[in-house]
Amino acid sequence: MKSNSFTLILFLLALGGQMQAQFFATGGPIAGGNSDAIYAFGDTAFVDINSNPWRSFDGGQTWDICNGNLPLNLNPDAFVKRGSTIYMGTNSGDRVYKSTDYGDNWEVMYEGLPKLVGFPSAVPKHLTLSGDRVFIGGTNFGLQYLDTNEESWVRVNLGTGDLVFSISVIGEDSLMVNQGTGFNNFTYFSADNGDTWTQLAAEPVTVRTIASTGFGQIGNILVAITDAGGANQAYYSQDFGQSWILSNGGPAVSEQLIQVREDLIFAINFEGIYRTTDGINWTFVEGTSGGNGLAYWKGSEVIYSSFGTGLKSGDGEVGGNFQEQQIAVSTMKDLFVQDNLLYALSERGIHTYNGQGWQTLSIIADLAKLDLINPGNFFDLDIVDGNFYLCGNDGYYKSTDGGLTFSNIDYFDGERVVMADQQGTQELVFVADGVNPFDPSFSVSRVYYYDAENDTYQQATLDGDLVNFAGLPRSLIKYGGKSYLSVDRQVVYESSDNGRTWISITLTNRADLLVIFDGKIFIDAYSNPSGRILYTEDGFATLQEVDLSGIPRGNEFLDWWYFEEIFVADGKLFVYQNDPVFSLNGPGNGNGLYSIDGATASWAFVEESELPAPPSFFLDYQDGLYAGVPNWSVWSNKEPLSTSVSNLERSATPPVFPNPTKDLLNIPNPDGQTWQLYDLRGALQQSGNRNETNISELPAGLYILQLNGQNWKILKVN
Q: Which of 188, 190, 416, 583 has CA atoms 20 to 30 A from the CA of 479?
């Protein structure tokens, strides 16, 4: 039985005693993630993906996270480059950072900036380079700039509020800034790189609560986009802001404008991308789902970010032909193994993994032909009697070709099907009915079985009646010839005929998850106010309590255990404690993973692995453990067969120098060991045993040097 719980777990391969394991990204499935801020130059791009900074040095062929020494989930809002320094503004943390090694390491750069914490807090939304100055602005920031000496940010006093809605470079040392209070917003122009400013005579929109979110200039035409609603809210001025005229076919509620060349401008809003070559007439280019960021790179392409369709790059001349960037940051909704393949259900589709690489079987959005109300709203993928079933808020769908195509099962049209499973040869379907959004444990559900003789589904009975089951299904197991269903309530349900009829067994504890281990049923239970681990050998007639004295309580203030997960792997029973209540030492000072090898054995603490976030799913596959990590795709403790980004993220500080380098690379190698230099796709670029090599002929980008069993990052620049 696959766990259908969306719980947070951390796990390691159990090797006895105090265990350790390192996890690696498997490189998929690919889903693109939610992307926001984006900045690009040449073949290099920095972008916010799922609230973390990512980068590519090779025109999007490979991507890796570049939070370096910073914590995860800082939510970058802006990037800019000056010389070889990258500046980043974030929505949390210390808000403004700089990196001199392209994101491997960051340092705080906020001297002179306004209050960063408290209410109202300052949030940088815009970073722009004009001449030799870096300009910054955002929420409660006002406008600031950083000179080349980098000692402190300098405040620009425009006199109207601290909300900056746009900073646009429209020529050499020429900028436009829209700033205000949100109720009164004005545009200012500087022709001397920010030393002096003049307010424009008129605003594109006369309503003062409307902000201008970007400016450009084509010939003598000044172009502006705004955050005004409705249709066509782009404007142009033929007298440099003395008066404004509504454009033709322009975007509304616009997010960003970029000027690709003197006669070409692109703009993006939540619904799409637009372009203009004269500043007056706009053309719709590409539909987006939550579009918000634009950049120009590789000398020929426009790349855009969105909340719904990930990161895409396409034709930088006329737009269109946008292709999704291959970034493994999907959220796993389900994982299971079938026919020696690992199957994954992500928010984007169904994928398979063979231990070496990922393949996408079907895209959920393509299943709209099934007349789904919301084709992306699936949360469970099951296999019953060799057929695949998709369960979701809008129904129940069946595939007889291994997940390539699905057909709608009319019987469950519009039903919230939460799980499907098999007991013996019997197909069971679990439908939510009366879901309580505040506490799912107080929801109710119905159970159906497939009646093959009449080719229909029949509702299972409970205690002799066609009534709802309390709670939603959490675990379904087979033990001693009987089926047992847990629903996170003070009851479990038992069936002796593979799920056609059920009886209820009342418990003194809430039973969440059930697993079979050491010939017994173990229960992740809850008895106010603490978690319990129980077991039974007689079908719940009697329950024994497992001694938890070897596991620290989850919180020093609240004297309880708080277990999120129980599972079996490699001959051991594991529990994961994840107390969300904050304490002096952070959430749950007793949090972590613990294991035992028998009901009366002592618990052993399992050291946490280097995963980017607590995963939602786990399973054994090809002698390894695999985790579906929210927003980070699938990770495993089996090292990838080829050099990849996963190795890159854990490489040590390079002893080689200089790094970055344009040509010569010195490699301390006194023993004359053979080294290899790989690109991020795992392709060997150079090898040797000398103390130096010349990489001037290699494309700019990130490489991995392998020497003495270790991996080091090398940055090649032009």
A: 416
Q: What is the rounded CA–CA span in Å between residue 246 and residue 259? A: 19
Token pair listed for 153: 């940010």
Longest dimension (CA), the chain: 88
Of 335, 229, 273, 271, the closest CA to residue 9 belongs to: 335
Q: Is the peptide bond before 251 cis (omega within 30 degrees of 0)?
A: no
Q: Contact, 642 vs 35, CB < 8 A?
A: no
Measured distance CA(394)–CA(306) in Å, rounded: 25
Q: Which of 513, 525, 518 is nearest to 601 (CA)?
A: 518
> How many Å apart are CA 551 and CA 106, to the nearest integer?
37
Consecutive H or E run containing 646: helix 645-648
pTM of the model: 0.69
Calpha distance 57→703 (Å, rounded): 10
Tokens of 376: 């992306």
What is the H or E stretch that residue 107 is in? Answer: strand 107-108
Select the more confidently predicted residue: 243 or 206: 243
Cβ proximity of 293 and 36 under 8 Å: yes
Q: Is residue 127 a contact partner of residue 101, using CB atoms and an 8 Å limit?
A: no
Residue 106 has pLDDT above 90, yes or no: yes
Beta-carbon neighbour count of residue 8 at 10 Å?
16
Q: Which residue has the higher pLDDT, 280 or 644?
A: 280
Token pair listed for 181: 């209070």
CA 633/CA 63 separation, integer angstroms: 14
Phi/psi at 365 (5° precision): -60, -30
| Structural contact between residues 49 and 33, judged by C-beta atoms closer than 8 angstroms | yes
- Whether residue 626 has pLDDT greater than 50: yes
Give 289's contacts (C-beta < 8 A, 6+ positions apart).
Answer: 306, 307, 308, 309
Q: Which tokens belong to 417?
A: 């099907």
**Encoded amino acid at 693, one letter:** T
Q: Nearest to residue 265, comparing CAs of 200, 321, 319, 203?
A: 319
> Quick one: tokens of 434?
């009366």
Q: Which residue shows structure tokens 């939550």?
A: 290
Contacts of residue 448, Cβ cutoff 8 Å, sequence gap at least 6: 428, 429, 430, 431, 457, 458, 459, 460
Contacts of 718 (CB under 8 A, 6+ apart): 42, 662, 700
- Contact present, 283 and 274 (Cβ < 8 Å): yes
Q: Read off the tokens for 259.
A: 């000027």
> Is the Cα dihedral 59, 65, 67, 69 positive or negative?
negative
Q: What CA–CA distance (Å, rounded) separates 627 from 342?
A: 11
Q: Is it the case that residue 584 has pLDDT exceeding 60?
A: no
Higher pLDDT, 326 or 119: 326
Helix (H, G, I), strand (E, B) or coil at 603: coil
What's the distance, CA 92 to chain centroid?
Answer: 17
Q: Give the distance from CA 710 to its chain's centroid.
A: 28
What CA–CA distance (Å, rounded) separates 215 from 224?
5
| Count of beta carbons in the 10 Å neighbourhood of residue 496 | 13
Residue among 23, 21, 30, 64 at smallest CA distance from 636: 23
Show the tokens assigned to 495.
């069936």
Closest CA to 623 of 223, 340, 225: 340
Distance CA 429, CA 389 (A): 10
The amino acid that residue 141 corresponds to is F
**Least confident stretch, 351-355, 468-472, 509-513, 583-587:** 583-587
What are the C-alpha distances in Å from 341 to residues 335, 405, 620?
Answer: 10, 18, 11
* Tens-digit pLDDT profile for residues 114-126: 765 555 578 899 9
List, as one string, the DSSP characters of 443-497: -EEEEEEEETTTTEEEEPEETTB--PEES---EEEEETTEEEEEEEEEEEEEESS
